[in-house]
């Protein structure tokens, strides 16, 4: 199965006082790179997320973003030491009677009361929402992968047809090329030993023979089709096969000098280039 490195998945839980939202985006990358925001989540949760990703994703840049809202309780801590210091300072002021001071008079003085917010963080709910978003991401990457495979097949079939045309015409082209070369040599050199001329022309014509290139192109096309049909096909291997295909189609376009057949080779080369662009997104 062809899997794309590009994908998107989200999930949300929302009620009166709780909200958990997870968004996961992935794009192509040479390796697996995971980024989690906010980055102050617990070590345990961070480890859980990274392990879950690595089990289902081989390559890609994965960006995970959370949004949390949980119910909370405030705890108030009275700083008795600060109160004693404050009262002691006030006693030094003879114009103020400390017996008349109430707690409400000093509660807003900085340092007297410390407020701590206790958030009831639901770790299991976060894991559940993350898993739902991850499942959607994986499904989305598979859907995109099917689209890429379809594009590949639309490119592979015309290349196969063109190689058949070139293969069936190769001998004919070689003979035409030999005759043309022989005529040109005779025009330039006049009289020339017939046997020696034939040998030289044959050697020049062989240099432009494309039988080997066609054979290698067919082999690479077969390898490409086979790799695309595998359950876990490799984007790196597909990229390598396409590099070889590009090299062979480039050589083919240089060797062929007949306009009609040269255009076939150039069309093949263009199709391979387009596949190479798509291959950058395959996992």
UniProtKB/TrEMBL annotation:
**Domain of life from the UniProt record:** Bacteria
Picking any one GO molecular function of the record gives: hydrolase activity
The protein, known as: YicC family protein
Q: Which InterPro entries match?
A: YicC-like_C (IPR013551), YicC-like_N (IPR013527), YicC/YloC-like (IPR005229)
| Residue ranges occupied by any Endoribonuclease YicC-like C-terminal domain in the UniProt entry | 170-283
Cofactor(s) needed for function: a divalent metal cation
Q: State the family named in the UniProt similarity comment for this chain.
A: Belongs to the YicC/YloC family.
Annotated Pfam families: YicC-like_C, YicC-like_N
Where does the record place the Endoribonuclease YicC-like N-terminal domain?
3-149
Q: What is the organism of origin for this protein? A: SAR86 cluster bacterium
Q: Which UniProt keywords apply?
A: Endonuclease, Hydrolase, Nuclease
Is Nuclease among this UniProt entry's keywords?
Answer: yes
